[in-house]
Predict the structure.
Amino acid sequence: MIPRHLLIGVAALLVLVVAMGIYLRQMRRQAKELESPAASALPVAPPASGPTETVTLYVADDAAGVLRPRSAQIPLPGGRQQRAEELLRALLRIYQQPGAPHPLPPAADIRAIYLVDPGAAVIDLNAAFADQHRSGILSEQLTVNSLVETLALNVPGIQRVNILVEGQTRDTLAGHADLSDSFDVTTIEGSQ
Amino acid sequence: MPSITTPTTLTKKALAILLATLMLLSVAPSALPSALPFADDKHVSVYSPVATYTLPVLDRAGREYVGLLELLEPLGRVSTQSDGRRLRLRYDTVDADFVAGKTRAKIHGRDFDFGAPFLIENSRGLVPLSSLGALLPLFLGTPVNFRESARRLFIGIAGIQPSFRLDAGNPPRLLLNFSAPVNPTISTEPGQLRMVFKRDPVVSPGSQSISFDNKVITHASYSEDNGNAELDVTANQPLMASFSNDRRTIVISAVMVPVQQTPAAPSVVGTGAGSQNPAQARPAANSAAGNNNNNVHRVLVAVDPAHGGEERGAALTDTLAEKDVTLGFARLLRHELEIRGFAVALLRDSDATSTLDQRAAAANVSRAGIYISLHAVSQGSGAQVYTALLPVEGTSNGVFRTWNAAQAPALPLSRIVSAAIVAEMQKREFPVRASSASLRPLNNVFMPAVAVELAPGTEGIADLTSPNYQQRAASAIADAVVSVRDQLGVQP
Ligand SMILES: [Zn+2]
């Protein structure tokens, strides 16, 4: 038989554990609420809480026909590849906001980025990114330049970038920008 | 992507994708095989359902060798251990034991004779190429088909057999059908079109040589060598190739230049000071028109209305397609150029489908002095002038140029043309900007080349079909071509 005082002690401890749990959850929620106004003041809200880093995105401006640097916060992930994906997703979120300077379809997404040494990167877009992209030389080239420059200027060592759609090579993004060959980073930087 | 499991396979897959992407569609004139990079290096090509790859073949003591680890790695899980004299290798569940300098080895508990010594170099095992047909089945558990003289190794696949169909129209076309998509390197030289299959398991069409009952396209031949398969088509006219049916069909046709202007007798129409000079076929009369007109009868302008046929270009409105605006604009530009004394080749003068390669080939074959591609867009305002997005290079670049960089030597001159168009448009208060674009076929043409994308003016989309608006843009382009005319003769 278990002594009665021991049972009471265990019950009290259990109650304490549950109470501590509830208290901790409350504290965490409060901390999050404190964080969120600060986060919304940033150009791009990071999708997850946790440590972030400041990066420079090269954002296309259709009216001026140029790329403009804009700083943003991205989550600090473990790997180089994950970081590259976070970078381009942050860029994509800017283009998908209402009134964006270079609108991209809401269903557009980056499926994956492969960093292939030495110096090559492969950006794999989803079908909607290309299928619903506006057709036009300027618009398509700005998208390409923005993706390539943002990647190359934040991830050291990238010299060439290939763009795939759903894992496949495609002739053009939306009828104009040629995706059949790799993009040379220096050439794109020089064209700006 | 569920198939990606380990970082190694992921890197391999990405590399494979990258390599596939980098395969160039090369239709460069006079692409001699000796000018192709690494053409002299020996290679063996391996085709299997899991991977297609090429390995270097090494010459050692008069025999050909290939790296064993490099050969097996793409096919399965391999690990090796070597002390410099002995090499132990495990492929999936097969263990093998090799000794440097010995012709015999132990594979899966059995003796194997290479017929030549096994070599170890920098802990790398090298096996005689001639042994692959017998060696690989021991590791893979399946028979392989090794064509040693061609250095092509087929593992568990039958190969892609081409079939031919001649369409004896005008111009005649030869349709090559393949059972799977193919990605050959294509080059042309007078009277011949050569397709080299480096990564496709293309096999003989049944006969090494096929004759056609046609006076233009006469025959085709198949050969294989150094890990590559090659199909050559012979004709007595220039040929060009385009892909269709998801790269399962290659259409080879004789090049037709829409307006075949002979340099000595173009349809030159006099204008202004030159209008006293109606004698079209009298060169002496042309030179009387003054220095500035010396080149008049020599410069042919290739005007390319982008898109066409099934390829509609941008949907400018629900009912207005880019292909229709570009055609109307091109006809206006042709008129503006002709009244300034130029000969004009319109690369499309109807709602016809024409591939980018066909357009580039037509411009290149026509020996035009300048190439102008026309596009239209519903956003923005005025016009945007583009040159190819390529690194500028020197003009002395040897005989061989890749198809995708054919434009590079002409790029400085293309930029001069672009700047001239910008200047002429600005004179007319036409909003305009110049930039670079990775836009085919700008990069595939040898002569100075620009693309002009027409955007609406103050009246919105209606401007794009307004003859008045198009006329302003066209006359600015034509005046710009006049301003650079003297430089167009001096082509690299
Ligand atoms: Zn277009």
Q: What stands out?
A: Residues 27-46 of chain A have pLDDT under 50 and may be disordered.
